[in-house]
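Example 3.2
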Amino acid sequence: MVIRQCLDRMTVDHMRVVCCRNPWVYRIGADMFLITKKDRPMMNRRTFGLTALACAAAPSALLAEDFEITRTDAEWRSMLTDLQYRVMREEATERAGSSPLDKNYAAGVYDCRGCDLPLYPSQTKYDSGTGWPSFFESLPNAVATKPDRKLFSVRTEVHCRRCGSHLGHVFDDGPQPTGKRHCLNGASLVFRA
């Protein structure tokens, strides 16, 4: 009981594991404590459920951002087609080869469909052979990235820094000078010559 009261007053930062073979032995200041089985934290259905819920909600809560341009869900739906809405607001991916922008190599700029922010100059576009418009570099201060953990691995998701619209993903297999491949959904882009 004394051990539990003492540990309740201390933070984890003040504790240090003394013996790696026994993770329940801690040194706090000059005193050493052994945490007995009855003092160990228990995992039950309630704590397991709360832990699982917290882990599921944490990534989106931690990665939530404030954007300069915000719209209600109804406003987004009224200005976008179903495909554009799924790609830009729900982070879906359009079918490979379905965007006419994949084979467009005219001089101009690719803007965000959600807020008209210029994102990529045509000089950085190249044919990656993937079926999606690909660029090796964006315009300065145009896009932002975040980790994407949806497919059992961590990828880098890229979105418009002004309205948060999902654009695609960034991979490390692009051409020089950056070595990056910004693999984008054409549904998120508008080309302006």
